[in-house]
Amino acid sequence: MRGAATLRKAPLMNMITNHMPTEELRALDSAHHMHPFTHNNDLTKKGARVITRARGVTLTDSDGNDYLDAMAGLWCVNIGYGRTEPADASARQMHELPFYNTFFQTTHVPAIALSTKLAELAPRDLNHVFFASSGSEANDTNIRLVRTYWAQKGHPDKNIIISRKNAYHGSSVGSGSLGGMTFMHEQGGLPIPNIHHIDQPDWWNEGGDMSPEEFGLERAQQLEKAIQDLGENRVAAFIAEPIQGAGGVIIPPSTYWPEIQRICDAYDILLIADEVICGFGRTGKWFGSETLNIRPDIMTIAKGLSSGYAPIGGSIISDEIAAVIDNCEFAHGYTYSGHPVSCAVALENLRILQEEGIVDRVASTTGPLMAETWHSLADHPLVGETNIVGMMGSMVMTPDKESRAKFASESGAVGLICRENCFKNGLVMRHVGDRMIISPPLVITPKEIKTLGDRARLALDLTYKHLKSEGMLKAA
Ligand SMILES: *Cc1c(COP(=O)(O)O)cnc(C)c1O
Q1: 3-class secondary structure, 131
Q2: Does 169 sit in the ligand 1 pocket, CB within 6 Å?
C-alpha cells in the first residue's frame, strides 16, 4: 500500500497529480455530471471522491489516499486493475478495425472469436451469443427473445416473465421492470406489462419462524403457484440471479434452487440465469449456474466478461431457442452489438482468467481463505450472520442476533455509517440496507484478504462505538 508521502515521489507522479485541484474537479463534476443512483444535491454538499488510478485491488484518489476495493468497482474488475494486456489488445484492435457493424450480413474476427470462446466456456448446449454493451441491454434482449421464441412456436400469449422482488437486472425500462426494486419502479412508470414478481429467498429478513430449508422451499414453490395462477400457457420464462447481488448478496437456502429447477422442468417455461455478477469466476466456477447446479436456457452476461475494461454484455442462448429464433428475422440489435474493441478486450480478459488459473484459484485456495476470514467476523457483537460463496459475501448487522432484529433507525442508516467507517480506513465495502457486502477482484492475494478482514473489523468496531454513543443500538 502506498501512502500519500511515497506517492509524491513516485515515478508515475504526472499520471496522478497532473490534474486540477480536487476541489475544482468536484465543482465541475457537480456542475455538469449527473451521477447514476445518486441524490446529486446531497453529493454536491459532500463532494464526490475522485479516483485517479488503480492497480491490482487498490484504488487511489486525487488526494493520494489508497483504498482496498472490496467491490471490484461494480462487481466487475475480476482480473484486478492495471493489467496492460487488455489495453494492448484494445489498441491493436482500434488500429486494425475500430468499428464495423454486424447487422447487414457482415461479421468480424473479434465477434467470431468471442462467441466461439463463450460457447466453449458455457455449460451444456448454450452455444449461441447475442451481444449487447451492458447487462441491462442484454436483459432487454432476453425479454424480446423469449417472447419472440414463444410467438414463433405459435404461442404469442405466452409472454409473461416471472421475476423476483428485490432482484436486480439492470436499469433500462425493460431490465428495470424485470428487476424487483420498488424504489426504481416508483419513477418513470415501471414495470412494463406482463412482468410478475414473486418473493425473494432472503431467509434472514423474511424467514420468520421457518428453518432456512423450509423457507427456501416455500419461496421456490411461489414460482409453481404463480405459474398455476397465471396459466402455464401465459408464462414465458422465469429470470433470476443464481445469487442476488445488488439486492444484498442473498445466498438462497440449499433447498431453493433444486426446487426451482424441478418446477422449471415440470412446466414448459424457460429459465434465464442472470449471470452478470455470478459469471466469470465470481462463485469459484465459470458460471454461478454451475455452482448452484441449475440448467438455464439463457444466461445474461456482462461485468466480469471484460472485467470492466470495456463495456460489453450479451445473452448466451441454447441450441433449441437459437434454432427457433434463427427461423425468423429477429428485429432487434444494438449499433454496438459485438463491438470489435470490446470483444478483443473480453477475449484477452477470458484468456487471463483461464491461463492464469484465476477461476480455479478462487475455488481451491483464495475463496476458502476469504470465507474463513469473512466468517471470522461473525463473532463481532454487531454481526448477525455472514454468508459467502467464492468471492461474493454479505454480513448482516443487527442489534440482536438471537431474534434477527432490525435496528430502530431507518433501514440503511447503520449500513451507511459502517460504509463511511470502511472508507476512512482504506476499504471500499458497499451497504445494502444494514447489510455489508463484498465482491473483491478475484486476484486478491492472501495478504490482501487479511487486510480486508482487519479493516472490516476495525470499521465494525468504530460503527459499534458510534451506535452505542448515539443510542442507536436499539431494536425496532
Ligand atoms: C449490474 C447488473 C445488471 C445490469 O448490468 P449493466 O451493465 O449495469 O447494465 C444486470 N443484472 C445483474 C445481476 C447485475 O448485477
Answers
A1: strand
A2: yes
- Indicate if ligand 1 lies below 6 Å from the C-beta of 202: no
Residues of the chain with pLDDT under 70: 1-18
Alpha-carbon gap, residue 385 to 40, rounded angstroms: 33
Please state, in angstroms and rounded to a whole number, the distance separating the CA atoms of residues 292 and 271: 14
Q: State if residue 136 touches ligand 1 by the CB under 6 angstroms criterion.
A: yes
416-474 per-position pLDDT tens digit: 999 999 999 999 999 999 999 999 999 999 999 999 999 999 999 999 999 999 999 99
Q: What is the pLDDT of residue 453?
A: 98
Q: How far apart are CA 430 and CA 249, in angstroms?
A: 11
**Contact yes or no for 459/391 (Cβ under 8 A):** no
The confidence score (pLDDT) of residue 17 equals 55
The alpha carbon of 285 and the centre of ligand 1 are apart by a number of angstroms equal to 19
Alpha carbons 400 and 390: distance in angstroms, whole number: 28
Alpha-carbon distances of 323 from 113, 119, 316, rounded to whole Å: 21, 15, 13
Residue ranges of the chain that CATH labels 3.90.1150.10 = 49-82+358-469
pLDDT tens sequence across 278-326: 999 999 999 999 999 999 999 999 999 999 999 999 999 999 999 999 9
- Return the CATH architecture of domain 84-355: 3-Layer(aba) Sandwich (3.40)
Q: Which of 325, 279, 350, 355 is nearest to 114 (CA)?
A: 350
* C-alpha Rg value of the chain to the nearest Å: 23
Cβ atoms of residues 436 and 430 within 8 Å: yes
Contact 451, 92 (CB under 8 A): no
Residue 19 confidence (pLDDT): 82
Could you tell me if the CB of 134 is within 6 A of ligand 1?
yes
Under CATH, domain 49-82+358-469 is a member of which superfamily?
Aspartate Aminotransferase, domain 1 (3.90.1150.10)
**Contact criterion met (CB below 8 Å) for 166 and 206:** no
Q: What is the DSSP string of 436-474?
A: EEE---TT--HHHHHHHHHHHHHHHHHHHHHHHHTT---
Residues 300 and 313: beta-carbon distance below 8 Å: yes
Contact 86, 309 (CB under 8 A): yes
Which atom of ligand 1 is nearest to 74's Cα? 1
